[in-house]
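re: ur question from the group chat, yeah i did fold both. here u go
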Amino acid sequence: MTPKQIDAFCGKLPAATRTVQWEGVIVFKVGGKMFCLIAPEEHSVGRISFKSAPEHYDALSRSPGFRPAPYLARAKWVSVDDPKALSDREMKAYIKRAHAVIAAALPKKKQAELGL
């Protein structure tokens, strides 16, 4: 997927919001909590970064094409410098999982407000 396609996909996820922060980084959030970042080329955070399920972080961060996300690895985030390294299906699955992990961590009241 291209960054533009990832941007469009993230925007269609339930209760997702889009902002631009940190020198042009596109940030997607659910309930005010980040789940995916799309950075300009050569930005220090990595091209595409997203929240990993905590139980998958160690294996995923060492997988080919992935690396611990700068500044966010302590929160179990990974980066993909070349989004074309993954199939469209794989990228969508990782991003959907990131969204789900963040949404599930929101307070029940906030989840209800957002229709999640």
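okk and heres the other one u asked abt
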Amino acid sequence: MTETQAIATRKTVQSQHQLRRFLSRRLITSVILLFGIVLVTFSLTVIVPGDPVRAALGEGASSNQATVNAFRQKYGLDEPVPIRFLKYVGNLLRGDLGTSMTTGQPISSDLAKAVPATGEVAFYAIIISLAVAIVLGTFAAYRRGKVGDQVVRVVTLIGLSVPTFWMAILCYQLFFMNLHWVSGSGRISPTINPPPHITGFYTIDYMLNGDPVGFFDATSHLALPVLVLSLFTIATLTRFVRTSVLEVLDMDYARAARAKGLPTRRVVVGYVLRGAALPILTLVGIAFGSLLSGTVLVEAVFAWPGLGTYAYNASKNLDLLAVTGVGLVVGIIFVVINLIVDILYGVLDPRVRLS
């Protein structure tokens, strides 16, 4: 082995060691954050105003003290708060989130249906939004100050200004009620059977089971929620991509690449977008987490049985365990997404590993 090869080998080993240390620190931080999320979500359900027993039983049944006592004993509401928290943590470690007062079903089963429903919308919305935003944002940056740039900026400003629930109602009225191009509400039509559960994404599950009728029906129902969420997300990402690309275009290495006469496509992909990737990645993670957290108003317009709808129903009925479960899932979503973004940071930029 030559001296040059030995130096390269040492640098590779050192880089791998730094990456492992970086990932270990991020994993430990994520575990601490998860415990904090459990503590905060449980505490919020304790201090929330209102009586969950009265909300669950109603005025008539809650006037019977024996019924109230039995209800409190069933759901552990008659025990001190510290004991309830310790029992809750112990159940969590076994994968038990408790039983919902609203549905009477295990909360884990309810969330297993609600999270994939929201996840399917969020996944397609973020993919479409990112693809469109990169094209529009890069185009606007290269046409800085010109007509194309001004048009993109005005369109994205309108997209940010229009309330999502109003856009959802408008799209519902136009594309479903008037034009009949797509289906209006729910995940599938009443005449279509749900697919065998594989991923929880109906479009993917229908495709894996070779059911084209179910696939196109699920796609038709998915179109409007994805469209509404994509419009707002595209507006946000496009403005951020434009800003990030403009910063890179003013850097010396981007100017040098253009001065060499390299093809525009190679400069954009190999230099500009690569240099702007880290800040864009951060915003994509935040946007994806927000979509996965549940979009209550959009889901309400399209009768979409997702996480937002489940959270709203649980809050309305003061279903404390269900609210805690939703808060825990939302917290886990953001922790996992931030962890993935941090890992990608460490892989793409070795300097981050040293921070």
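fwiw on the second one: The mean pLDDT is 83. The radius of gyration is 25 Å. idk if thats what u expected
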